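REQUEST FORM: STRUCTURE PREDICTION
Request ID: SP-0412
Submitted by: Lab K.M.
Chain count: 1
Length (residues): 204
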Amino acid sequence: MSLGKRAKILTENQERAILHFLETHGRYTKRNRVLFLLSIKAGLRAKEIALLRWSMVTDAEGLVTSAISIENNVSKGKKGGRIVPMNRDLKVALEAHHSEQHSKPSQDSPVICSERGRRARAGEAMSPASIADWFGDLYRGLGFDGCSSHSGRRTFITRAARKIGGVGGSLRDVQHLAGHSTLATTQIYIEGEGDAQRKIVDLI
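STATUS: Completed
RESULT:
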């Protein structure tokens, strides 16, 4: 993956702007907040968001759990399944989205449903392509050039890589959170930090 083709990561200011926009525009504000947070706070791919079921984020009583269970058949490849600890903001958003459903969704129901016509009435999931298009439309509408459905995932992985050492972890932990089969793949996703690079060079 060449540098020019990588989706840009999001700044904290951009993240706040996106969340404010999603809270104030459209009919499906709670669903859309969850959709965005699954990308930036859990690092999920568009396919994983599309195939995510309530059984992967709730217990038998329908309560949102402390982790997201990504099954192998939902992820990319046979070994992409993983457990992602639940971000606090994402948990609150999932609880609000779950309670907004007209009837208690079954464990097999998709977390993110289509909002279009018959598919919406039937409670059908958005397709991975539709989710990728949703992110593309969102970022273009806000003028965030170079961002795509992968931007939230790249942001999640980059932020995790920069902070993992502070909690006693390593890039291996980030690799597991991302669901990558190799550490080399994870490293491709990580955006470099110019200030850190300048500081380390002065220490050499």
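NOTES: The chain has one domain: 3-151.
Reviewed by: T.R.
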